[in-house]
Amino acid sequence: MPIPQGETSPPRDLLRDHVFRRLRDAIVDGTLEPGEQLRDGELAGWLGVSRTPVREALLRLGQAGLVVAAPGRSTTVSTLDVRATRNAQSVVAAMHRLAVREAVSQMTEEDFARMRSANERFDAALRRGDVDAALAADDELHAVTVEAAGNDAVKTVLEQFTPVLRRVERLRFSSVTGRGSVALHRKLIDLCAAGDAEAAADVSFDTWQTLEPLLEMSGTEQSGEAG
């Protein structure tokens, strides 16, 4: 595996999460490709850490469905599993609906301003074709309601399953279909600001359902390959 250069080790107390996020992001953005073999020694050298946090991260990534570990054999980056992605989509959509429902009564004008700013950056990133920036802005926008809800269980579930969807969202945000999310975001923000928790929760749920066409397309492609 080609190992990128220039990584430095973070403070020890942040090491475990840092390693997990670096590997997770490398899988989501395609740096580590589906089917690629992951050797903990190489990964440790890349990140400038010991093998222990790498092994812990690979276990967490396995639980999220991003890597596959065969007993007594190597760990590899998983291919896109449509069924697993659909399952993740259902869970993530439900968790965001719950977060918004719980968050609206707690939100402030500053929260709404943060969401509008994130959506503007999301829109601009889509227009210039910057998928990484679009994903970052989308994450920031939805994080506002998750933080306002203050539900740690929701945060934990989203941290595990959202990365599975991000692999599909990279396809959506690199195409014109991603533009529809800008309008949905605006509607979500307006409903949150109006204090309509139920309607806002429904719109939040709908934003995650926009992945369905890509999942259907992926399922069709996999069926064709199998045939």
Helix content range:
over 70%
**CATH class value of the largest domain:** Mainly Alpha
Structural class: mainly alpha
- Count of DSSP H/I helices: 10
- Strand elements, count: 3
CATH A-level architecture of the largest domain: Up-down Bundle
Overall domain count? 2
Question: How far from one another are the termini?
Answer: 31 Å
As for the CATH topology of the largest domain, it is Four Helix Bundle (Hemerythrin (Met), subunit A)
Order of helices and strands: HEHHEEHHHHHHH
Shape: globular
Features:
227 residues, mainly alpha, Arc Repressor Mutant, subunit A, Four Helix Bundle (Hemerythrin (Met), subunit A), three-stranded antiparallel β-sheet, 10 helices, disordered C terminus
Protein topology:
Blueprint: H1 15-28, E1 37-38, H2 40-47, H3 51-63, E2 67-69, E3 75-77, H4 82-103, H5 109-128, H6 131-149, H7 152-173, H8 180-194, H9 197-209, H10 212-226
Antiparallel strand pairs: 1-3, 2-3
Helix pairs in contact: 1-3, 1-7, 2-3, 4-6, 4-7, 4-9, 4-10, 5-6, 5-8, 6-7, 8-9
